[in-house]
Design goal:
The protein is an alpha/beta fold. The protein has 2 domains: 158 residues, Lyase, Ornithine Decarboxylase, Chain A, domain 1; 243 residues, TIM Barrel. The longest helix has 20 residues. The chain starts with a strand and ends in a 7-residue tail after the last helix. The structure holds pyridoxal-5'-phosphate (PLP).
Length: 414
């Protein structure tokens, strides 16, 4: 395990979290390298000899050190912006293993992706298809394209992270997909290479994932009868993780389900996991500034806030919060764990029984995905440091921001 207790004290691999706080301060994101590798390998090994490419969803955690680690394991990448493409390249990842998703690709981003030779564009509309065709044609290139089909299944997850319903902005409607493929097959700037879907995030129930996979494969068969052959099928990401008492589908079960659905189909399988690769490989370490007794509740005010980890404020997400050192003899009280930001929504957890004192270190678990990547400078708070632990070595992978970082690029008007 990446994080475990020895004599009541929390460690990342062989390093006590107290040592990390002493050296790098708080709040700090801590990642276990062993855990990152382990998660990737679980997916990778489950495919056995079947042709596949795991495309890590960069938005879940775009730190260069993390992208570099996945690149070294042979990973591809799923990006949603030109900035993410540049991060992949800067980290040592390959454009040729990168798929480009997202509903709003700009002309500049499309040119950048074509210049670097990405694996494919995951196209989300006929309008985008026309734009890519025109740009590719003008650059005397053919753009590799996959259409993101909206399979219209209910992913049964939080509405804000559900993307596969008819009502969502993502993808090409199921009913229009065949026609759009036929249209695309006649475009001189387009080369059809795949089909993709992505129905939502933090999916724990395998049924909607399986249903979406069936629908996509059925559509690939229909295209075959129309004489359109594809190189790959991309089943997207969205595999859930355990934050509390969830029991999500395991990487093994997930991959076996996909292989079973594929049957005799020979296309390469792509998947785009984000959270499942990094979520439980990271924690946010913070320190308690004050314990405050309100009229009808107690608050543990810590030095991390919604700007560091937005998920609780944004969609009421639940993260386990634990003291780094388990004390004996301090009464357990129920606390709302909050940050210093001036918003009522600034909380990391509510009604948490904790046995803590002011000055104690606490960890917010399962913070490796959509933690640092969603952080901001709200309230002029410098963003946290990030470290990666590898056995008994702790590497700083991103320095804590300074005041100079905060005001960089700003100008005062005379
Ligand atoms: C966000 C996203 C992913 C990754 O989602 P996870 O839930 O982190 O696995 C994959 N593909 C696309 C298109 C996405 O938008």
């Amino acid at each position: 395990m990446g994080f475990q207790r020895t004599n009541g004290e929390l460690y990342c691999e062989s390093i006590p979290l107290t040592a990390i706080a002493a050296k790098y301060g708080t709040p700090t994101y801590i990642y276990s390298r062993t855990e990152l590798i382990k998660q990737f390998s679980k997916f990778d090994k489950a495919f056995k000899e079947n042709p596949h490419l795991i495309c890590f969803a960069v938005k879940a955690n775009p730190s260069l050190a993390i992208l570099n680690q996945f690149a070294r394991l042979g990973s591809g990448f799923d990006i949603v912006s030109g900035g993410e493409l540049q991060r992949v390249l800067a980290s040592g990842g390959q454009a040729g293993k990168t798929v480009f998703s997202g509903v709003g690709k700009t002309e500049t981003e499309i040119r950048l992706a074509l210049t670097h030779g990405i694996l494919c564009f995951n196209v989300e509309s006929s309008e985008e298809l026309s734009r890519i065709n025109a740009i590719a044609f003008s650059m005397q290139k053919t753009a590799p394209v996959s259409l993101r089909v909206n399979p219209d299944v209910d992913a049964k997850t939080h509405p804000h992270i559900s993307t596969g319903l008819k009502s969502s902005k993502f993808g090409v409607p199921w009913k229009e997909a065949v026609n759009l493929y036929k249209e695309a097959s006649g475009m001189r700037g387009i080369r059809l290479v795949g089909m993709d879907c992505h129905i939502g995030s933090q999916l724990t129930d395998p049924a909607p994932i399986a249903e979406a996979a069936s629908r996509i494969i059925k559509l690939v068969d229909i295209l075959h009868t129309e004489g359109i052959e594809l190189d790959h099928i991309d089943f997207g990401g969205g595999i859930g993780i355990r934050y509390g008492n969830e029991s999500p589908v395991t990487p093994d079960e997930y991959v076996h389900m996909l292989l079973a659905k594929m049957g005799r189909h020979t296309q390469k399988i792509l998947i785009e996991p984000g959270r499942a690769l990094v979520g439980n490989a990271g924690v946010l370490l913070a320190r308690i500034e004050y314990l405050k007794k309100g009229e009808d509740r107690r608050f543990a005010i810590i030095d991390a806030a919604m700007n560091d980890l937005m998920r609780p404020a944004l969609y009421d997400a639940w993260h386990t919060i634990e003291p780094v050192i388990m004390h004996r003899g301090i009464p357990v009280e129920e606390y709302d764990v909050v940050g210093p930001v001036c918003e009522t929504g600034d909380f990391l957890g509510k009604n948490r029984p904790l046995s803590v004192r002011p000055g104690d270190l606490v960890t917010i678990l399962s913070a490796g995905a959509y933690g640092m990547s969603m952080s901001s400078n709200y309230n002029s708070r410098p963003r946290a440091a990030e470290v990666m632990v590898d056995g008994d070595v702790c590497h700083l992978i991103r320095s804590r921001e300074t005041f100079d970082d905060l005001i960089r690029g700003e100008l005062i008007v005379e």
